[in-house]
Write a structure and sequence with these properties.
Elements (H helix, E strand, L loop, with lengths): L1 H36 L7 H42 L3 H17 L2 H8 L6 H25 L3 H16 L7 H10 L5 H13 L14 H20 L17 H38 L3 H41 L7 H12 L4 H13 L6 H25 L4 H14 L5 H14 L2 H18 L3 H5 L2 H39 L10
Helix pairs in contact: 1-2, 1-12, 2-8, 2-10, 2-11, 3-5, 3-10, 4-5, 5-8, 5-9, 6-9, 7-9, 7-19, 9-16, 10-11, 11-17, 12-14, 12-17, 13-16, 14-17, 14-19, 15-19, 16-19
């Protein structure tokens, strides 16, 4: 009883810290939307109140989710990864990686949204293809760690193949295909896959083992792009029809509450389906390999509850509260004569919105933990924010001008590829992981509707011009974080050179040359 009370008290303390963290992450975005609502893009009162309630659920949900990730998702992934690697069976590693990648990806909520946007391909065919793509590339990622293959060479080869493949895909299909790489690495996939990598790295004894645990998300993000591009070639699919976001009409507080209440069963079911594969894998490994003690199991069980409740509240908040407001604001601005103003507005929103992505907090904590604070959290988060800010600005530029997405993706990935030869390998791995974690639920449910609404107001092709926001958000952090790596590399070298010169001078100095006082 005393131990349980201590655990609850400890969890409450951590939860209060997590809630403060999520509050500081969500408030800037909320403030920006309020400024827009009271100035250039007024919204109906009911819609604004829905946004406020959505922001409250977002803060609470993110706090619970990040606590649940620490207590359950990360330990489960670490234990499973360690157990699989200890078996020394390559076939077991391949099989578990493939199944984990497939089942967890199929449970990602954002993948269902993507499937609805591709009319020429059956939904389940698309979902299975994307899931298999993640599974296969998770196998590649695990084998890369064990065989110690340089990540940058692998990534350059994969993205070169992707851009060659893209030349054979219908133009109207490209944006959706590249968006698929971002939506499949969401709040369920990222914590588990990253922890799996830490578990595998723990078995290796070399100094680069922990650094090699980064890069799994990067490789898993590329699998869906290839899978969807291949489906586009096979099916000859084109752009889907744009289905406008439904703007709810809310007359009083009771209707507002009922709107959120009616959505809860859907997200309760969705998150339960997402968590079941992870729980099944854990139970299987607990019975056959792990055999963890009761205290650890209780801690993981409590963490799973936090994860479940947090993700239900988070998805309800962003889908019911944020999505309609983003679409409405975008449509109002897109219809203005000075609709170019959406570009700087998008950049400001992009800078702050990345801090509200749950998976970003997971990545930041792992970076700080593994590097022992060598890479400051502030430097990493600032670089990520700058990258997303640029990407949203470019995405809104596409919406306003109709610029083809490949005109931005090819130069962007080319620059990212060149930087891999100058940036330290750890920064390269973190950068490509960041691209996956930055393009999560907030991007899909706020930035994408904002772009869709703007495109409708401008009168453009929504599926061709508005889609691609996720792809842009996944691309620019590859550049900004590697630039940070280059800065750290040369700054560190300059700091080391005086010390080395002093040491050389001391070694070559004769005793007679030493001046005594």
């Amino acid at each position: 009883m005393g131990r349980s009370n201590h655990l609850l008290k400890h969890n409450r303390t951590i939860l209060s810290e997590k809630l403060k963290e999520s509050l500081s992450s969500v408030l800037p975005v909320t403030g920006i939307v309020f400024v827009l609502c009271f100035t250039i893009s007024p919204v109906p009162n009911g819609l604004l109140m829905g946004f406020v309630l959505g922001a409250f659920l977002l803060i609470l949900g993110m706090g619970l989710f990040t606590l649940g990730t620490d207590l359950a998702m990360t330990p489960i992934g670490t234990h499973v990864g360690s157990a699989v690697t200890k078996s020394r069976s390559v076939w077991l590693i391949v099989l578990v990686s493939l199944l984990v990648g497939i089942f967890i990806t199929m449970s990602e909520p954002d993948l269902q949204v993507l499937a609805e946007q591709v009319p020429g391909i059956p939904n389940m065919t698309l979902i299975i293809a994307v899931a298999v793509g993640v599974g296969i590339f998770l196998v590649f990622a695990m084998l890369r760690m064990l065989l110690r293959v340089k990540l940058s060479y692998l990534l350059i080869a994969i993205y070169a193949f992707i851009f060659i493949l893209a030349q054979f895909v219908p133009r109207d299909f490209l944006s959706v295909a590249f968006d698929s790489g971002g939506v499949t690495t969401g709040p369920m996939t990222v914590p588990f896959i990253m922890a799996l990598g830490v578990g595998v790295a723990a078995i290796r004894s070399d100094s680069n083992a922990e650094n090699d645990s980064f890069g799994l998300v990067a490789l898993c993000s590329s699998g869906p792009i290839i899978a969807v591009l291949i489906l586009g070639i096979v099916y000859g699919a084109g752009a889907g029809e744009y289905v406008p976001v439904t703007i709810p009409e809310i007359s009083d507080s009771k209707e507002l509450w009922e709107m959120f209440l009616l959505s809860l069963p859907h997200y309760c079911k969705e998150v339960a389906v997402a968590l079941l594969p992870i729980l099944a894998f854990f139970i299987l490994f607990q019975i056959t390999k792990l055999r963890l003690k009761r205290g650890e199991l209780i801690k993981i069980g409590v963490g799973l509850v936090y994860t479940y409740v947090g993700l239900v509240l988070f998805l309800s908040g962003v889908n019911v509260g944020f999505m309609p407001v983003g679409n409405y604001i975008g449509e109002r601005i897109g219809g203005m004569d000075q609709n170019w103003i959406i570009i700087p507005i998008g950049m400001v929103i992009g800078y702050f919105i990345v801090a509200a992505e749950p998976a970003v907090h997971v990545l930041n904590r792992q970076v700080v933990t593994i590097t022992a604070g060598t890479i400051p959290k502030k430097a990493l988060s600032t670089s990520l924010s700058i990258g997303v800010s640029i990407s949203v600005g470019l995405a809104m530029l596409r919406v306003v001008t109709g610029l083809p997405i490949m005109y931005l993706l090819i130069p962007g990935y080319l620059i990212a590829g060149i930087l891999t030869f100058f940036s330290p390998s750890l920064f390269t791995a973190i950068a490509f992981d960041s691209g996956g974690v930055a393009s999560g639920p907030m991007t899909a449910t706020f930035l994408l509707p904002l772009a869709m609404g703007t495109c409708s107001g401008v009168g453009g092709n929504v599926v061709v011009d508005a889609f691609g926001v996720v792809a842009m958000v996944a691309m620019t952090p590859l550049i900004t974080i590697q630039v940070l790596g280059v800065y750290y590399k040369y700054t560190f070298q300059e700091a080391q050179e005086p010390e080395e010169n002093d040491a050389i001078a001391l070694e070559t100095t004769d005793d007679d040359d030493i001046i005594t006082f």
